[in-house]
Amino acid sequence: MTENQNYFVAVVGGAISGSVAAEILADRGIRVAVIEQNKRPYGKIEDGLPRWHVEQRKQEYGRIDARLKKPGVYFVPSTKLGRDLEFNDFCNNWGFSAVILANGAWRDRDLGVAGAQEFVDKGLIYQNPFIYWYNHKNEKDYTGPRYKTPDEAIVVGGGLASIDVVKVLQIDNYERAMKARGIPTDMHELEKGIPAACKAHGVDPESLGVKGCLLIYRRREQDMPMAQPPDNATPDQIAKTEMVRQKMLRLARDRYLFRVQDRRLTTGLVVENGRVVGLRVAETKIEGRKADPIPGSEHELRAPLVISSIGSVPEILPGVAMKGEYYTFTDEDLPRYSGADRVFGVGNVVTGQGNIRVSLIHSQKVTKQLIDDFMSGSNRGGTAAASAATAETRAAGQAQAVHQTLETIPALSPDRIAALEQRIRARQERVGYTSDYDSWIAKVTPPDLE
Ligand SMILES: Cc1cc2nc3c(=O)[nH]c(=O)nc-3n(C[C@H](O)[C@H](O)[C@H](O)COP(=O)(O)OP(=O)(O)OC[C@H]3O[C@@H](n4cnc5c(N)ncnc54)[C@H](O)[C@@H]3O)c2cc1C
C-alpha cells in the first residue's frame, strides 16, 4: 500500500492500546510515532497489574515489544504530552495526519468527600500510586513515595482493582506475621492462597493475630463490578452475573481472609492530629443503580490507613476539553476528540476501565476503522458508504459521525514527512534514544525489576 506511505500518525502512549494501534498502522505501511511518557512503554501492565503476575507481565511485555519494533514505528520515550509537548501545538501544528490518544486512565477518581485532597498521604492514599509503589519498591533506584501496609486498613472500592489492593494488604500482613514467627514465606506463596500457605507451614492463620483489612462498597455484594453482564442483558443474564460476582467475592475472601461490608457510603473523614484515622460511613438503601444513605445510620469506621480504589479516569492534560471526568470524545464507534481535527482515542483513555483484552479489541477496531474510513484511498468509497449505511440505522444523534466518516485525510508531501521525521529524531536524541528499540529497553530496564 504505497499510498499509505504518505501518512504519518502519532500515537500517544505505548502500552496495550497504543502498541496495537501502532502495529496496525505500520502493517498498512503508515508511518507512526509512538510518544510515551515513561522510559519503558508497558503502562498498566508494569505499573497496574500487581507484580505477582510474573508470566502474564512477561508475555505482555514481549507482545508490546514485538509491536513497537515493527518497521515504520518511531518510538519516542520519556516524552509526556502536556509536559514536554503542548497538546494543541502537537495536534494542530506538528503536521501529523492524525493523532491517536492511547494514554490510559491514570488519575484516581476522587473519593468524593469534602477536603479529602488535603489528607492525601496523611492516612489517605489512592490506588494508582499505591500499586505503582508495590510493583517498584524493591528496586534499588526507586525514589518515589513509600507506603505502609498496616493491618485493619480500609479499602473503599468494589471493582477488581480494589481486590488487588486488598490482596496486597493481606499478603503483606500475613508475610510479616509469619516471618515474625520464623516461618519463611513470600508474596508468591501467599498469593496462591493464605490458608494454603499457612497449612503448608503447619500454622493456623487465626493464630497469627492478623485482623485483616476491610473492603467497603456502596451497593450490594452482587452489584460489585467484578463481572459485567452482556449488553442488553435479560433478567436471567443479570441474575447470573450477580451470582458470578458473589462467587468471585467468596473465593477471594476464602483465599485472602479479608472482611467486607457492602451498602456502605463514605460521607466524611475522621481526622485527628492532621491525619485521617477513619471514615464516616452511612448504610445505604439500594434501588436500581441508586445507593441512598439511610438517615440515622451514619457511624465511624476507624483505620490506620484508608485506600481509595473507586476507579481511574484519564489525567487532565492542559488544553484538553473535558466532559466530566473524560475528554470530549464524540461517537462511540470511532471516538473522536471534539476539540481538534483528527484526534482519536483508543483503550482506557476512552473506556476508563476494562481489561487487557477489552483495550486490545477496542484499539484494533478503532484503528482499523480510522484507516479504512479516512486513509486508504482504495477502500474509502466502499467503507465510507458502508459506514454511512450502518450509521443511518443508528440514533439520529449520531448523524455527525456519518458526516465525519466521509472526510479524507490528505496525503502529506515528502517534504512534510521528512520534516516530521527530523523533528521526531531530534526528540529521540534529546532523551537519549539514539540506537534501536531493543538496545533502549535493555539500557533502561532496572536490573532488579521484578
Ligand atoms: C490494579 C489493576 C489490576 C489489573 N489487573 C488486570 C488483570 O489481571 N487482567 C487484565 O486483563 N487487566 C487488568 N487490568 C486492566 C488493564 O491493565 C488495562 O485495562 C490495560 O492494560 C489498559 O491498557 P491501555 O493501553 O489502554 O492503557 P495503559 O496501560 O494505561 O497505557 C497508557 C500508556 O500511555 C502512557 N501515557 C499516559 N499519559 C501520557 C502522556 N500524557 N504522554 C505520553 N504518554 C502517556 C502511559 O505511560 C502508558 O504507557 C488491571 C488494572 C489495574 C489498575
The distinct bound ligands, ions and cofactors come out as: flavin-adenine dinucleotide
C-alpha end-to-end distance: 42 Å
Provide the gyration radius in Å: 24 Å
In the CATH scheme, the class of the largest domain would be: Alpha Beta
- Which fold name is given in CATH as the topology of the largest domain? Rossmann fold
Q: Low-confidence spans: pLDDT under 50, at least 5 residues?
A: 378-406
**Proportion of residues in extended strands:** 15-25%
Strand line-up across the major sheet: 3-2-1-4-20
- Superfamily (CATH H level) name of the largest domain: NAD(P)-binding Rossmann-like Domain
What is the SS-derived class? alpha/beta
| Count of all domains | 2
Helix tally? Answer: 15
Descriptive notes:
- By secondary structure, the protein is of the alpha/beta class.
- It has helices at residues 16-27, 43-47, 54-68, 87-92, 127-136, 160-180, 187-191, 194-200, 235-256, 348-351, 356-375, 377-392, 399-405, 414-430, 437-444; strands spanning 8-12, 31-35, 73-76, 98-101, 107-108, 124-126, 154-156, 214-216, 259-261, 264-272, 275-287, 290-293, 299-302, 306-308, 312-313, 322-323, 326-327, 329-330, 336-337, 343-345.
- The radius of gyration is 24 Å and the shape is globular.
- Residues 12-18, 35-38, 41, 43-45, 48-49, 80-82, 102-104, 106, 131, 161, 164, 315, 317, 347-348, 354-357, 359 line the site of flavin-adenine dinucleotide.
